[in-house]
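Notes from hallway chat w/ T.B., transcribed later so I don't forget. T.B. wanted the structure written out for a chain they're using in a teaching module, and asked if we could keep both sequence and structure tokens in one place. Agreed to drop them here.
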Amino acid sequence: MAEQPRTLTGTEKAAVFLRSIGEAEAAAVLKHMNPKEVQKVGQAMAMLTNVSREEVQGVLDSFIATVEEQTGLGIGSHDYVRSMLVNALGEDKASSVLDRILSGGNTTGLEQLKWMDARGIYEVIKMEHPQIIAIVCSFLEPDQSAQVLSMFPERDQANILLRISTLDGVQPSALSELNEILEKQFSGNAGSQSATVGGLKTAADILNFVEGSLSAAIMEKIKETEPDLGQNIEDLMFVFDNLIDLDDRGFQTLMREIQTDQLQLALKGTDEALKEKFLKNMSQRAAEMMRDDLEAMGPVRVSDVEAAQKTILAAARALSDKGDIMLGGGGGDEFL
């Protein structure tokens, strides 16, 4: 009996597509991706084996269908990009994204940092003024910033996060100074265009990726000096338990993006209501197997459970950013 084609995730479909178009063409596509996307797709390309002709054809058919639906392919004007992002994200979020996109080469040094590991970034900025550190962390992805933040001495972490939360933008002179600093390590041109970075949401996103006990310690220090600000940051944080507010369709979409062993480990450390909601959105057989595996599972490290939960949260945020699911913010009125 012939094997049925696998159900591929979006990342796996991208990997199949890139492997099917040849090295030069795939390299040209990868140049337009950010570091995290390159790593994710590259890993999928390396791990996918025994891809059938039917699977390749299915991916190509899906790609052609998607392209045929697009009406703005090849249009690169600022007005088109602005209109598209406002329609997709709303005015506030679009403005923040546009500042980064349309600043062009003015953030060359910062963009180069995104390709470095956390230790390398820390070595570049560790001796700089806390305000410079805060600006750098605001430009990085939240999980990357969390890793960098965790490398600073404990006494400095709350101060840096406070500065991130109160950032309302970067003045031209500050952006130029930052690029001059980074050009000591990288080649690039100093810019003069301002950019909107930082703020309460950025601080909350970074803390979401900081290890649990460290995150709590940072929040405690912030609340000691700025209780209202600390509460505002905490209200915007989205933690694993908040997934209980996700609708059934969202749960099913999320579970297609996560590994079974990661989910099992994450559920080991959560309450029964959230656990049951995950199980409810599985097939009966899969739910029974998960229950059996959880009962048979021995003691596990808290850090391993937290790591699994953060991996699932990262997948949920990625789906939310694409509009595939809707996550309710901790404050109740915001949506990620």
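Follow-up for T.B.: Confidence is low (pLDDT under 50) at residues 72-77, 102-107, 187-195, 329-336. Might be a good example for the class.
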